[in-house]
From TrEMBL:
Domain of life: Bacteria
Start and end residues of each PHP domain: 5-220
Matching Pfam families: PHP
GO molecular function terms listed in the Swiss-Prot or TrEMBL record: histidinol-phosphatase activity
A GO BP entry: L-histidine biosynthetic process
Pathway: Amino-acid biosynthesis; L-histidine biosynthesis; L-histidine from 5-phospho-alpha-D-ribose 1-diphosphate: step 8/9
Gene: hisJ
Record keyword Cell division present: no
Entry-linked InterPro entries: Histidinol_P_phosphatase_HisJ, PHP_dom, Pol/histidinol_Pase-like
Name of the protein in question: Histidinol-phosphatase
Family: Belongs to the PHP hydrolase family. HisK subfamily.
Lineage: Bacteria, Bacillati, Bacillota, Bacilli, Bacillales
Alphabetical UniProt keywords: Amino-acid biosynthesis, Histidine biosynthesis, Hydrolase
Keyword Hydrolase: yes
Organism the protein comes from: Paenibacillus hemerocallicola
The protein's Enzyme Commission number: 3.1.3.15
Length: 272
């Protein structure tokens, strides 16, 4: 099994770190990684959510896309023979707006090697709301809107299932991003029923198998104080492997020192 970090960000991420990609890549080489996927946030529709300040921090602008691809391609050449760098994007699942996703992907279809499809937004108070912004924002704009954590969780996994179906249409290797992101604020909000999470993950497994979409085994939850665990449980990784669903470790690094974070968890889970 190649040591592969399949989910990472760059200076093009407006909520990330200004360090050059080289620092991330050198960390990956030092830790013995053989493949490294760069999966930056592509543009979002204008006024997707009604918080202008937050919108400005979420994703690249369309005008930045050529520079991003040129940037990663340059490092791909520079590290040839030392590290297999895959050019990718972390697409947002945009409910009933695949036309926008297609507008992003189509011009770069020949370049894209990795496509992570993530659910970051749900319908809520006043329109779409970001599920991983702040606990108080979640409480006011999602929990109060749906009335219970159970209903929010079900809405989230409904969108995850639709995202998996949508990801099939993207170029390159396809994975569903941090499938358990809905638990990011689990220690700051009313408890999530783990039996419900298990049921919804088990329900998603045949869909993953049928579509050939893989799983981003995202460990970023371990470094989030209100979460404290990976976004993909060990039992689910084992069931995915048994079903032939590809599982790819993802550090979701937004800083160079986060590359490789939580690899031990992934390695242990894959050993079964």
């Amino acid at each position: 099994m190649i040591k592969w970090d399949g989910h990472s960000h760059t200076k093009f991420c407006k909520h990330g770190h200004p360090d050059e990609l080289e620092r991330y890549l050198e960390q990956a080489v030092e830790l013995g990684f053989g493949r490294y996927s760069v999966t930056e946030h592509p543009p979002l529709p204008e006024r997707l959510i009604d918080d202008e300040r937050l919108m400005a921090e979420l994703a690249m602008d369309f005008a930045e896309m050529p520079a991003y691809f040129d940037y990663v391609r340059e490092y791909k050449k520079r590290y040839e023979g030392r590290l297999d760098i895959a050019i990718g994007l972390e697409f947002d699942y945009l409910h009933e707006n695949y036309a926008f996703t297609e507008r992003i992907a189509e011009p770069w279809a020949d370049v894209l090697e990795d496509a992570v499809m993530s659910v970051h937004y749900l319908p809520g108070r006043g329109g779409l709301r970001c599920i991983d912004y702040k606990p108080d924002d979640f409480r006011v704009n999602l929990l109060d809107y749906y009335g219970s954590m159970e209903k929010v969780v079900d809405e989230y996994f409904d969108h995850v299932e639709q995202a998996i179906e949508t990801a099939v249409r993207l170029p390159g290797r396809k994975r569903i991003g941090h499938i358990g992101l809905i638990e990011k604020f689990r220690q700051a909000l009313p408890p999530v029923d783990e039996a419900q999470i298990r049921h919804r993950l088990e329900k998603a497994l045949p869909l993953l198998k049928r579509t050939g979409v893989g799983v981003d085994v995202n460990t970023a939850g371990l470094r989030v104080a209100t979460c404290g665990k990976p976004y993909v449980p060990e039992w689910f990784i084992r069931e995915c492997v048994a079903a032939g669903v590809e599982c790819v470790y993802g550090s979701d690094s937004h800083k160079p020192e986060q590359v490789g974070f939580g690899w031990d968890y992934f390695e242990q889970a894959m050993r079964g």
